[in-house]
């Protein structure tokens, strides 16, 4: 249910009304254009495998805290 119209206060101007997409550049006001088929991203089946391999290698490396043993701390 829309709000009831308010009585105007004497001597006060109306507040400005917002209009959808008023401040957008003209290129963004229109509906987005569909990409031609050749512009779609290429599917690389080895990409996820390479990503998982890299994560596995990173997780197998010791962290700096694990690599420091008692007495190995740098002395100044």
Strand fraction? under 5%
Topology as a string of helices (H) and strands (E) = HHH
Cα(first) to Cα(last) distance is: 73 Å
Average of the residue pLDDT scores: 76
Query: What value does the Rg take, in angstroms?
Result: 31 Å
Gross geometry: elongated
Give a description of the structure.
With 76 residues, the protein is an all-alpha fold. The chain contains three helices and no strands. The protein is elongated, with a radius of gyration of 31 Å. The termini are far apart. The model has no long low-confidence stretch (mean pLDDT 76).
List strands and helices in order, with pairings.
Elements: H1 26-29, H2 45-60, H3 64-67
List descriptors.
76 residues; mainly alpha; 3 helices; 0% strand
In short:
This protein is mainly alpha-helical and 76 residues long. The chain contains three helices and no strands. The radius of gyration is 31 Å and the shape is elongated.
């Amino acid at each position: 249910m829309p709000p009831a119209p308010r009585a105007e206060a004497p001597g006060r101007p109306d507040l400005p009304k917002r209009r959808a997409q008023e401040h957008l550049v003209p290129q963004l006001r229109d509906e987005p254009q569909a990409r031609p088929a050749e512009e779609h991203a290429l599917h690389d089946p080895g990409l996820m495998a390479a990503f998982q391999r890299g994560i596995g290698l990173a997780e197998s490396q010791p962290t700096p805290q694990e690599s420091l043993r008692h007495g190995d701390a740098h002395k100044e």
